[in-house]
């Protein structure tokens, strides 16, 4: 657990003007209720809880580029798609967005940073929710060594890839299993 997270630090505004915040070099730190994010809450067995927000709005040195970056964290209660039991999912996102007014273009590419068109005030919870939804795993599952289904079927390790072989990011890959061996 990171100790730098503050449980509640000030009052977060409902709507923000990101470019104006970036001109001032503002920080937004605090919590938002999960209930303010219906699409995210829908995916949680318990639709309540807090979403931790830590965002810095900045103007990049010497340039007319506005950015917002920081860290977001939420705890969700979801269903493990392997054993179908409830599990805690710690959802984290580290957004890095370039803020543009509509019609504006970047003069040069900024790596693969995402772009947020922000020419009018927008909902802070909507922005946070969008970023967390991007971080949400398609198929939430327990860690391999914590999943009841896994424990009961430890001998079928080689068959596990049949169930979750999609996407090449299977937590059951031989490598990650070896690393987790205690
Ligand atoms: Zn499970």
Automatic annotation (TrEMBL):
Taxonomy, superkingdom: Bacteria
InterPro entries hit by this protein: YceD, YceD_bac
Entry GO CC: cytosol
GO terms, biological process: ribosome biogenesis
The entry's keywords: Ribosome biogenesis
Pfam entry (one): YceD
Family the UniProt entry places it in: Belongs to the DUF177 domain family.
Function text: Plays a role in synthesis, processing and/or stability of 23S rRNA.
Protein name: Large ribosomal RNA subunit accumulation protein YceD
């Amino acid at each position: 657990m990171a100790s730098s997270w503050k449980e509640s630090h000030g009052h977060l505004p409902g709507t923000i003007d990101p470019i104006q915040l970036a001109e001032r070099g503002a920080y937004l730190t605090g919590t938002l209720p999960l209930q303010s994010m219906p699409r995210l809450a829908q995916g949680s067995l318990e639709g309540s809880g807090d979403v931790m927000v830590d965002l810095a709005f900045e103007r990049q040195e010497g340039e007319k580029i506005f950015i917002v970056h920081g860290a977001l964290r939420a705890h969700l209660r979801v269903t493990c798609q392997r054993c179908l039991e409830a599990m805690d999912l710690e959802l984290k996102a580290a957004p890095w967005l370039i803020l543009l007014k509509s019609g504006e273009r970047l003069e040069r590419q900024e790596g693969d940073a995402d772009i947020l068109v922000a020419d009018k005030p927008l909902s802070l919870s909507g922005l946070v929710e969008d970023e967390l939804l991007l971080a949400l795993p398609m198929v939430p599952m327990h860690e391999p060594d914590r999943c009841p289904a896994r424990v009961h079927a430890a001998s079928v390790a080689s068959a596990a890839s049949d169930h979750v072989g999609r996407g090449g990011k299977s937590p059951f890959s031989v490598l990650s299993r070896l690393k987790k061996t205690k």
